[in-house]
């Protein structure tokens, strides 16, 4: 029997979904609908961002279950819609935190789709057609071509996957807040997925980079492997005191609520702290910590599509990739437990292409 029109426009896939706030992930059969502007991507790798963990646990009180997380996606184009001009079958591509936006507002027109009020995040949002978006812990994704980036040949798909969220999230504020100037002193608060990429971009820009961490055990590799110039333990009063008023800017990637005043004290007068971390509870900021020496506290959400492509091309030029632990799909729940304890150097990446089908076939709920 010939397929119906609806069948022609849907593709079957499998994902790993959380069903409730326990966050436990297990296989789920899903469908993806395709359109004329869409790129159908066979997913090969997907990074595990801490936002995935916040989301499946409903930390931000906006979870829609079943939820298939994942927004650090790399893979290969399988098929393109008839209006697609930028990509063809077989291309190496990436997808980050959004799969669509209104494409016509001021933000979109300026290339800041990430700031569009009509942004469609890669997962956990009701899409225009009424379905919930499902992310990259899945075998396939269908994305409007504007939201697909070309993956540089020199970056391996697994080591590059985390750049699609972690990379752009730190690159964009460094660019727009002037924290990319050689010789400047950058603080990177929290050495996790985002933080370790921030260190690498800071060094690629020729900056002095200091890591501020809660994990003394990360010191040696921060200095030796990641190339940081200095390492401070946030709870070590002496180290913190010695670094007071020395930093031009801090990228704050910490996923938990921690006291802010001592950290703002690390900034020089007129210094800036950019929040990218998204702890669950409101932050307490003593006004004097900002006002006394003209400090700025700002926020930043991922980055636009043009900047994402620019970031990837720059990463290729400077050899910036993520330090990763590749895992099979069957390990994902253990990986989440480890991520909650900051026990990963520095990003888990799921080998979707080689392991998801098998995990889906053998796992029972
Ligand atoms: P991650 O890999 O878990 O890294 C977070 C780091 O924060 C940890 O490695 C740890 O570094 C530090 N940390 C965690 N708990 C802490 C605690 N109780 N006290 C002090 N430090 C603590 O997470 P990620 O994927 O980099 O994401 C970081 C945050 O950014 C998350 O909240 C995520 O949702 C958010 N995010 C935001 C955007 C955006 O667009 N703004 C995009 C992506 C992610 P140390 O061991 O060095 O202390
Ligand atoms: Zn993310
Ligand atoms: Zn828009």
From TrEMBL:
Catalytic activity line of the entry: (E)-cinnamyl alcohol + NADP(+) = (E)-cinnamaldehyde + NADPH + H(+); (E)-coniferol + NADP(+) = (E)-coniferaldehyde + NADPH + H(+); (E)-4-coumaroyl alcohol + NADP(+) = (E)-4-coumaraldehyde + NADPH + H(+); (E)-sinapyl alcohol + NADP(+) = (E)-sinapaldehyde + NADPH + H(+)
GO biological process: lignin biosynthetic process
Domain Enoyl reductase (ER): 23-350
Keywords, comma-separated and alphabetical: Lignin biosynthesis, Metal-binding, NADP, Oxidoreductase, Zinc
Record pathway: Aromatic compound metabolism; phenylpropanoid biosynthesis
CDD domains: CAD1
GO molecular function: cinnamyl-alcohol dehydrogenase activity; zinc ion binding
Enzyme Commission identifier(s): 1.1.1.195
Domain of life: Eukaryota
Alphabetical list of InterPro entries matching this protein: ADH-like_C (IPR013149), ADH-like_N (IPR013154), ADH_Zn_CS (IPR002328), CAD-like (IPR047109), ER (IPR020843), GroES-like_sf (IPR011032), NAD(P)-bd_dom_sf (IPR036291)
Names of required cofactors: Zn(2+)
UniProt xrefs under SUPFAM superfamilies: GroES-like (SSF50129), NAD(P)-binding Rossmann-fold domains (SSF51735)
Quaternary structure, from the entry: Homodimer.
Family of the protein in this entry: Belongs to the zinc-containing alcohol dehydrogenase family.
Full protein name: cinnamyl-alcohol dehydrogenase
Taxonomic source organism: Aegilops tauschii subsp. strangulata (Goatgrass)
């Amino acid at each position: 029997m010939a397929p119906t029109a609806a069948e022609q426009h849907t593709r079957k896939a499998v994902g790993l979904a959380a069903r409730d706030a326990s966050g436990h992930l297990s296989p789920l059969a899903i469908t993806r609908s395709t359109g004329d502007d869409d790129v159908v991507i066979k997913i090969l790798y997907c990074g595990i961002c801490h936002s995935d963990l916040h989301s499946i646990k409903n930390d931000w009180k906006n979870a829609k279950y079943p939820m298939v997380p994942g927004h650090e996606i790399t893979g290969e184009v399988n098929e393109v819609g008839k209006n697609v001009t930028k990509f063809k079958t077989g291309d190496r591509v990436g997808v980050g935190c959004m799969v669509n936006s209104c494409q016509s507002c001021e933000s979109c027109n300026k290339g800041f789709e990430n700031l569009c009020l009509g942004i469609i995040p890669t997962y956990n949002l009701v899409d225009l057609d009424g379905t919930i978006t499902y992310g990259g812990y899945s075998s396939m994704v269908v994305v409007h071509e504007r939201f697909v980036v070309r993956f540089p040949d020199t970056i391996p798909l697994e080591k590059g996957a985390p750049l699609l969220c972690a990379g752009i999230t730190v690159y964009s504020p460094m660019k727009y807040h002037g924290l990319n100037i050689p010789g400047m002193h950058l603080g990177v608060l929290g050495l996790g997925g985002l933080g370790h990429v921030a260190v690498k971009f800071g060094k690629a820009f020729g900056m002095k980079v200091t890591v501020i961490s809660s994990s003394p055990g990360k010191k040696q590799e921060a200095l030796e492997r990641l190339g940081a110039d200095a390492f401070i333990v946030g709870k070590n009063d002496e180290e913190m005191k010695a670094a007071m008023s020395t930093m031009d800017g801090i990228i704050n990637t910490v996923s938990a609520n921690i006291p802010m005043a001592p950290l703002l004290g690390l900034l020089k007068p007129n210094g800036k702290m950019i929040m990218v971390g998204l702890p669950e509870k409101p932050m307490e900021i003593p006004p004097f910590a900002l006002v006394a020496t003209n400090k700025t506290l700002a926020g930043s959400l991922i980055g636009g599509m043009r900047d994402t492509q620019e970031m990837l091309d720059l990463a290729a030029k400077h050899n910036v990739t993520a330090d990763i632990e590749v895992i099979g799909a069957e390990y994902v729940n253990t990986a989440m437990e480890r991520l909650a304890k900051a026990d990963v150097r520095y990003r888990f990446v799921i080998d979707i292409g080689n392991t998801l089908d098998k995990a889906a076939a053998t796992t029972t709920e």
